Amino acid sequence: MSDVRRTDAVLLLVALVWGSSYLSAQTATSALPVLLVLFARYALSALACLGLVAVRRGPRRWTRDELRAGLPLGLTQAAVLVVETYGVAHTSAANAGLIISLTIVLTPLLDRRRGGLPPSFFAAASVCVLAVGLLMSGNGFHAPRSGDLLMLAAALVRAIHVSLVGRLTAGRAVRPLHLTTVQTLVGTALFLPTAVGGLPTLARAGTATWTQLLYLALFCSVFAFLAQTWAVQRTSASRASLLLGTEPVWAAAVGIALGGEHLTALTALGAALIVAGTYWGQSVERARRTAAPRRIDVRPDGPHEEDIRCATTTPTSV
Fold it and tell me: Which of 240, 189, 227, 217 is nearest to 306 (CA)?
């Protein structure tokens, strides 16, 4: 396998893992309370990140910039995951993955550092809005489900978080792994008080539930971060963005194939439109950005959810 194909395969694997995180989170929250799931995921991710920091070469101490960025970003990341996880617990995994992809078009609207957006971007955003309406319609137009509304809120909160990542890390020497570790430690500390009473329940959780928790923490967070960081260093930003942007497609495919979910004609049309709209909006924003004077930014984002992504891609996973 050539280096290009190997890199593409790794990026597609990352997109698949992130897409599958919605069904895993839904399965875990059906067995345990949402906040307990979040505590376990954060704690396991933090332990893995600390282990990686300990064994990697180079300075291990955190810089002042990493702490200054990691502490507030840990708070906003936790807010994202709370809303996302409650949302996916009350809607289908396919809908969750598709609706959260709105982050791709919401983030540039909030990031005013690069000036105004062309009309074509707003046309793409309008396609996404229509798509969300179709996804929420299910078998016919009706009041949207609470889970769908929560995923909409999660997309907005995540867009705010991503914009904040750019502001807090621009022009600063921030190591992605160290920043991620700070965020996971903040999340662990935040959810620990609510999880203390549920620790016996967590300890008694079955093998299937622990498998989901470990998958969310180690694969959807730590592995995906490392694999994505490795891959984007070996390919173009546009190619990485295109391949990672298949995440909502994988979310829908996993939900249907493994979760027993079904797409009606309306929701299938909505799925197609939201993928098309987000790709369109992403390509418009990328073209505008590459036409501007080039600037080097370190723009990590923390997991589902916890995950560090390249500057040209927007995180959408739980």
Answer: 217
Residues of the chain with pLDDT > 70, as a percent, come to: 85
Angle subtended at Cα 109 by Cα 77 and Cα 111, rounded to the nearest 5 degrees: 60
**Cα distances (angstroms) measured from residue 126 to each of 166, 230, 281:** 25, 34, 10
Q: Which amino acid is at 258?
A: L
Cα distance from N-terminal residue to C-terminal residue, the chain: 31
DSSP 62: P
For the chain, give every domain's residue range.
3-291
| Contact present, 304 and 18 (Cβ < 8 Å) | yes
Q: Which two tokens stand for residue 259?
A: 């979760």
Inter-residue contact 73 to 168 (CB < 8 Å) = yes
Handedness of CA 116, 176, 296, 74 (dihedral sign): positive
The closest of 80, 93, 300 to 187, measured between CA atoms, is 80
Max intra-chain CA distance, the chain? 57
Average pLDDT score, the chain: 83
H-type helices in the chain, by residue range? Answer: 3-31, 34-55, 64-88, 93-100, 103-110, 119-137, 146-169, 176-195, 199-203, 207-214, 224-232, 237-244, 247-257, 265-291
| Sign of the CA dihedral with 284 first, then 285, 286, and 287 last | positive
For residue 239, name the pLDDT band (cuts at 50, 70, 90): confident
The residue length of the chain stands at 318
- What's the pTM value of the predicted model, to 2 decimals? 0.82
